[in-house]
Amino acid sequence: MLSETILEMKDISKSFPGVKALDSVDFKLRKSEIHALMGENGAGKSTLIKVITGVYEKDAGLITLQGEPIHFKSPQEAQNKGIGTVYQEIMLCPNLTVAENMYIGRSHSPIVNWKQMNEQAARLLQSLGIPASPIQELASCSLAVQQMIAIARAVDMDCKILILDEPTSSLDEDEVHKLFELMRELKARGVGIIFITHFLEQVYEISDMITVLRNGKLIGEYETSSLSQIELISKMLGNELEDITKIKKYEPHVSDTTIPVLEAVGISSVAGVRPFDFAIHKGEVNGFAGLLGSGRSESVRAIFSADKVTGGEIRMHGKKVKIRSPLHAMKHRIGYLPEDRKGDGIIEDLSVRDNIILTLQVLKGFFKPFSWKQAEAFAEEYIKKLNIKTPTSNTPIKSLSGGNQQKVILARWLLTNPEYLILDEPTRGIDVGTKVEIQKLVIKLAASGMSLTFISSEIDEMLRTCSRLIVMKDRQIVGELRGTDLSENDVMNMIAQGGENVCAQ
Amino acid sequence: MASVNMIKPKARLSNSNILFLIAAVIFVLMYLFAIISFPGSFLQFQTFFDLFNLNAPLIIMTLGLCIVMIGGGIDISIGAVCGLVTMACAVFLESRMGSIGGAILISLGIGIAFGILQGYLIAYLEIQPFIITLSGLFLAQGLLTTLHKDPINVTMGAFVRLRDFDFVISWLGTKNRLGVFIPCEIKPGTIIVVILLVILASLMKWSRFGRNVYAVGGNSHSAMMLGINVKRTVFITYVISGLTAGIAGFVYIMTTGAGNVGNAAGAEMKAIASAIIGGTLLNGGVGNLLGAPIGTLTLLVINELIRAAGVQSNFQAMVSGLLLYFFIVLQSIIMSLRDRRRVSIALPPWLRFPGKGQVASQRQP
């Protein structure tokens, strides 16, 4: 019952320096089909989309649009050929009216005919059931409506293919349903939709087909109805061969009576994580498992007060402490290595040395600077300890590789001698060797009495290092796993079942 | 909250319009206050017209600057360019081949040349506008002093006639103390202000270019993704601003009749202040060209008030400064309140515009 193919991609490859982002990937989109593109971070979804829309040029392969080979050089060209794209971030101008946002940049007439534009917009909004008025300023619309207006713009440009790149990540449930209604309406009109999301429930609610990518390779194309959630998760996460079997976990002796190093009660933040409880003991390594977007980072960011905390309290050694900003957290000897290394971690133009001593300097106070000699000593010590590959401690950090940058950030926190260190995706985007080093270091630190939280998209890394896994799904904790013989299957089962429990509630 | 918005979209005032409205209300209140305090001078129509007659160059510069600021940029070279134009015109008019037509061409030429140079560097080479126009400021100042150091009084016959030319409104005026009726006079500069205001305000409201400027100022990355030629749009805003600075230079010398090193010095700062008081945000994307003259006049009325009250002139500057603080704080409070969507400015019924034609009726001049 498969209908006519509108977009076909064959043997698409795309390399970036050092990475093969896409490795002969095939993809097929049919008329009136909602096709979910799934994969973890770095799987190649975005690259594939950008190859279709002409943001990147493919290295090899063939793309045909309704049987015609195409080769776009800019998003504009793709748009003109009927490929509309709506990004996670809404690419509209908030200070213009709704109607202007739908028509600006498309007309060639030098005069703006407001009356005609508003009438056309009103008709289109009505036909798609979008609850907005053409003369409204866009900023006064809710995010969902803005998203729909972006879609309406794409639709009005007579698009045959609509690409929705994580359109739902900032929407609430009601808004998601409104968006889905619109998607079904478009599907009925014969538009092929490529849908990217991290919410599994949404995939099962709306999509007809699923294509899974992993590490730039095509894993397969499946009919949604014939692929169970657990199968999908295992296909997304995969079971890569390990060269790191030697790593042995450190198991601390924890009884129910010991007072945890840190305890969070009913904590929630503006990032949208639901109130949760959490505790960690001395020398313990725990992890937050879950798919991307499940609220792993949001949870630890709430503990560190990196996002504005909206409720709950934090106790350290049984005593309530006031943590309202990362600085407070640092003063209570909590460290946080952020997920976004470039944005939240490194200061690009500062030297390796300055990046290492940064946090300690903040804690000491800016009016009591370290002497050059002292700073140099600290830097040299950690460059040696963590085996950071840098020409000198004076080299700007931006010229180091990702793995070495990550080690510098790690050194920055170790220098402050934290009691509790949160590592959010410390192994992302770095080479395998460094990954292993970091995992070994985590275990060494735990053995020396530090408590750590280790988060990774690669579940096996967490299984190797963590003695306890907190499983998250759709921004809430769905369970906890402990013991030495955990397998990836246990985690996947819990994610899949957790979801069902949530649905049943 | 969001879902309520979705079901019943409120056509609320846009930021541009609400800031314009505030500026207008403040100007009217200020002027009423001035009339009540000093009815002798402010009740005369001539006082009002003189605000335009004497400050036409500043208003013209503010118009161009507003367009740049709506596009998200800034131009601080305009005062120096204006001063350069006055001196260039004076030197030219006093030379043997001097003619009024030639002076106009020189004015426009210098303005556009600066606009093209700065616009190119800012738009196409993506250098920060502040730095580029600061360089432009120094360049224009240097050219001005190189051209001529001493004040030049233009004595050319045709030009003196133009300088002294007034439009007389015979039906409007006041009687002086002797009971002689003195009709109101309007300088040609005022007419140029009105013409430019109508042209530029229409450009920003009804032309594709004008709307593109708003889009670029609102979010230049989105504007690019929406298919707008961002670079060209930014480029043109600086050309317009250079052009208005050139026109302002000619109007300046047409009013004062002399080229002077100090002409229009510091006018760019007054223009920025006027634009902000008139409701144009420094961040770009928000503003209304009709606010430009209102902002300038508000600033001037305050100065006039202080002068009329017999206070030292340094207090004028201080009050202008404090007023600017007040406006910027007021604007940011309103913006943050509106962004949070918890509090919105509840307009009294007599200020609300009737239903559907809301947006159109407010934006039209």
Summarize the SSE layout with pairings:
The complex is a heterodimer of chains A (505) and B (365).
Chain A: E1 5-16, E2 19-30, E3 34-38, H1 45-53, E4 60-65, E5 68-69, H2 75-80, E6 83-86, H3 98-103, H4 114-127, H5 143-156, E7 161-165, H6 173-188, E8 192-196, H7 200-206, E9 209-214, E10 217-223, H8 229-237, E11 262-269, E12 276-280, E13 285-289, H9 296-303, E14 309-316, E15 319-321, H10 326-331, E16 334-337, H11 341-345, H12 352-364, H13 372-385, H14 402-415, E17 420-424, H15 432-447, E18 451-455, H16 459-465, E19 468-473, E20 476-482, H17 488-504
Parallel strand pairs in A: 3-8, 3-9, 6-7, 7-8, 13-18, 13-19, 16-17, 17-18
Antiparallel strand pairs in A: 1-2, 1-4, 4-5, 9-10, 11-12, 11-14, 14-15, 19-20
Chain B: H1 2-7, H2 15-37, H3 39-42, H4 45-70, H5 78-94, H6 100-124, H7 129-147, E1 152-153, H8 157-164, E2 167-175, E3 181-186, H9 188-206, H10 208-218, H11 220-225, H12 230-256, E4 258-259, H13 267-277, H14 291-308, H15 313-340, H16 358-363
Antiparallel strand pairs in B: 1-4, 2-3
Helix pairs in contact in B: 2-14, 4-9, 4-10, 4-12, 4-13, 4-14, 5-6, 5-7, 5-12, 6-7, 6-12, 8-12, 9-10, 10-12, 13-14, 14-15
